């Protein structure tokens, strides 16, 4: 399994270029990056295989799995999990079976980053705590939690969730309790919010490319916490209005700041 940085990196998508043919290429790469993240998450959330390092890559909807695992049954399970992800057309399973998989370079900071991503994901998928901003840091398998939660019970729950993640040796729970604090409703963790912001940016780029009024323009999109900022140049007021309308109507967008300029 890759590190959190790798997971986020695969989700990071460059701005859409103005040539329609290139836009089609970009759309495919954007979808593959999103599918790659979904496959990684599916593998990461399965307790039978998430202690193994399984690398994933998606190209044109075809997922390639590589790495080492200790039994054929778990190798087959990884294949099944990846195949069940919506949008995956085919899975090429290149995982090798080794009774005692070697860690090789899978040590130190790389392993800590991987564990950190798994802890973040575990917290993100728990509806009791994912509306709070909980920061995680891992050093030699020791997890430190910081941030604010609304009760002692939720502080303890976050600690237990982190402790159950394979690879975690201990948890230092420095979460502070702010009685009555309900967190940021429906926002989830910082990790989840960043992924959703990336999805919004990617989706809007694809939407813009699908409209002939916008396909030959360069619109830069920046999304932070659901707030979208549009900058760049368009050829008419109608194109400007269309871009803003599309952005305002897109799922998970909370606001739109229009900095587009009309250039005849």
TrEMBL record:
Pfam family, one: BON
Presence of the UniProt keyword Signal in the record: yes
Keyword vocabulary terms for this entry: Signal
Classification via PROSITE patterns: BON (PS50914)
Entry keyword annotation includes Acetylation: no
InterPro entries: BON_dom (IPR007055), Lipoprotein_DolP (IPR051686), Transpt-assoc_nodulatn_dom_bac (IPR014004)
Domain BON: 31-99, 111-179, 196-264
Signal peptide range in chain numbering: 1-23
Matches recorded under PANTHER family: BON DOMAIN-CONTAINING PROTEIN
Record protein name field: BON domain-containing protein
């Amino acid at each position: 399994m890759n590190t959190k940085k790798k997971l986020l990196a695969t989700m990071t998508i460059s701005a859409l270029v103005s040539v329609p043919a290139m836009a089609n290429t970009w759309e495919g790469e954007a979808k593959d990056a999103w599918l790659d993240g979904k496959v990684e998450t599916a593998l990461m959330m399965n307790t039978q295989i998430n202690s193994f390092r399984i690398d994933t890559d998606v190209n044109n909807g075809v997922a390639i799995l590589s790495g080492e695992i200790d039994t054929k049954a778990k190798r087959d399970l990884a294949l099944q999990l990846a195949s069940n992800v919506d949008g995956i057309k085919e899975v090429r399973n290149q995982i090798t079976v080794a009774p005692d998989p070697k860690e090789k370079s899978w040590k130190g900071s790389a392993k800590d980053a991987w564990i950190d991503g798994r802890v973040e994901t575990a917290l993100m998928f728990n509806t009791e705590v994912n509306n709070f901003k909980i920061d995680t840091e891992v050093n030699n398998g020791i997890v430190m939690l910081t941030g604010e939660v609304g009760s002692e019970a939720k502080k303890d729950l976050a600690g237990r969730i982190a402790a159950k993640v394979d690879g975690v040796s201990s948890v230092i729970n420095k979460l502070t309790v702010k009685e009555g604090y309900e967190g940021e409703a429906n926002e989830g963790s910082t990790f989840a919010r960043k992924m959703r912001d990336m999805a919004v940016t990617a989706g809007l780029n694809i939407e813009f490319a699908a409209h002939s009024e916008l396909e030959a323009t360069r619109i830069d999109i920046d999304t932070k916490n659901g707030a979208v900022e549009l900058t760049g140049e368009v050829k008419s007021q109608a194109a400007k209005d269309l871009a803003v309308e599309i952005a305002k109507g897109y799922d998970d967008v909370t606001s739109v700041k229009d900095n587009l300029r009309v250039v005849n």
